[in-house]
């Protein structure tokens, strides 16, 4: 695998391979010195044009745990503010010879443009409302750990599906792993092509108890040009996942950041059913596996035990 641009490019075997490798990397995080030399001498450039807490910190930790050098480039405060284009920014930063560029940007399809300007491996860390493939991989990983397998699991994704890159990647990844996916939300926030995605669609949470996994999404205000719901209060009244709607055997997920009191009530966020912090923790090992996959998997060494050339 040279790049990770979309879940579309991965089949079930590739998703399983990444999850298996992530599982093998878990043990590194338990050590006093949380590092292996797998990517020693490699440079990973994090190029972030949009806000990020979890994704950027976990890509940085992932690269460091594999001994890569990391450069963090945040667009605000850079020459991007002076009008430098994506192409010129990538050409400029490529002069530093990064081996991988992890990019988050507001432009759907932006990461797919980069291979024409740089030899670095490209990892999509979220492009507009298009895709967020590493989020989907860490979600699959988290569920696989809990459920053993996603085959036959009923996953409901709830909320602002229309503007959500998490949903677009998650739907594909969950289905490839054998889950049955249902999308639920106000009709204005469901994509028109929903039925062609091989999912069920609901506009109420009346049957939410059918779900094994309840995956709630944040309202993506930054991608809305008009009001899609009358008010957040009215949205919450009908679509909030709260203790009244969430059954005791159901697992709760959310990609973060959570708007407490809107898509989720505070009590369910903090309940034992919530996998939200497990998702964050999984982000590090899964991103280690992705960086390893695009930079080193073609070499046959065991990443944990074999010394790498200096
Ligand atoms: N953190 C996720 C993303 O970047 C979800 C969100 O922002 O709501 O898409």
Automatic annotation (TrEMBL):
Annotated pathway: Pyrimidine metabolism; UMP biosynthesis via de novo pathway; (S)-dihydroorotate from bicarbonate: step 2/3
Limits of the Aspartate/ornithine carbamoyltransferase Asp/Orn-binding domain: 152-292
Organism for this UniProt entry: freshwater metagenome
Name of this protein: aspartate carbamoyltransferase
Family stated for the protein in its record: Belongs to the aspartate/ornithine carbamoyltransferase superfamily. ATCase family.
Catalytic activity: carbamoyl phosphate + L-aspartate = N-carbamoyl-L-aspartate + phosphate + H(+)
Pfam families listed in its UniProt record: OTCace, OTCace_N
Function of the protein: Catalyzes the condensation of carbamoyl phosphate and aspartate to form carbamoyl aspartate and inorganic phosphate, the committed step in the de novo pyrimidine nucleotide biosynthesis pathway.
GO cellular component, one term: cytosol
Enzyme class of the recorded protein, top EC level: transferase
Molecular function via GO: amino acid binding; aspartate carbamoyltransferase activity
GO BP term, example: 'de novo' pyrimidine nucleobase biosynthetic process
Keyword Transferase set for record: yes
Keyword hit for Transferase: yes
NCBIfam families reported in the protein's UniProt record: asp_carb_tr, PRK00856.1
Alphabetic keyword roster: Pyrimidine biosynthesis, Transferase
Domain Aspartate/ornithine carbamoyltransferase carbamoyl-P binding, residue spans: 3-144
Record InterPro entries: Asp/Orn_carbamoyltranf_P-bd (IPR006132), Asp/Orn_carbamoylTrfase (IPR006130), Asp/Orn_carbamoylTrfase_sf (IPR036901), Asp_carbamoyltransf (IPR002082), Asp_carbamoyltransf_Asp/Orn-bd (IPR006131)
């Amino acid at each position: 695998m040279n790049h990770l641009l979309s879940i579309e490019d991965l089949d079930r075997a590739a998703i399983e391979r990444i999850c298996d490798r992530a599982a093998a990397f878990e043990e590194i995080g338990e050590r006093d010195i949380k590092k292996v030399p797998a990517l020693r001498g490699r440079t990973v450039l994090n190029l972030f044009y949009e806000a990020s807490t979890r994704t950027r910190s976990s890509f940085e930790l992932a690269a460091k745990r594999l001994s890569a050098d990391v450069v963090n480039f945040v667009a605000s405060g850079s020459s991007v503010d002076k009008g430098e284009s994506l192409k010129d920014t990538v050409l400029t930063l490529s002069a530093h010879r990064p081996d991988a560029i992890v990019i988050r940007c507001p432009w759907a399809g932006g990461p797919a443009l980069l291979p024409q300007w740089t030899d670095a491996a490209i990892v999509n860390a979220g492009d507009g409302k298009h895709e967020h493939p590493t989020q989907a991989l860490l979600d699959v990983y988290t569920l696989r750990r809990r459920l053993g397998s996603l085959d036959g699991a009923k996953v409901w994704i709830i909320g602002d599906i229309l503007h959500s890159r998490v949903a677009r990647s998650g739907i594909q990844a969950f289905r490839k792993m054998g889950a049955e996916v249902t999308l639920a939300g106000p009709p204005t926030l469901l994509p028109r092509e929903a039925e062609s995605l091989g999912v069920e669609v609901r506009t109420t949470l009346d049957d939410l108890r059918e779900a094994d996994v309840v995956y709630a999404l944040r309202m993506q205000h930054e991608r809305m040009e008009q009001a899609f719901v009358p008010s957040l209060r009215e949205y919450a009244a009908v679509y909030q996942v709260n203790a009244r709607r969430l059954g005791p055997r159901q697992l709760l997920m959310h990609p973060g950041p959570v708007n407490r009191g809107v898509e989720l009530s505070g009590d369910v966020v903090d309940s034992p059913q919530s996998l939200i912090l497990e998702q964050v923790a999984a982000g590090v090992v899964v991103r280690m596996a992705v960086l390893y996959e695009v930079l080193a998997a073609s070499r046959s060494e065991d990443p944990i035990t074999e010394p790498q050339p200096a």
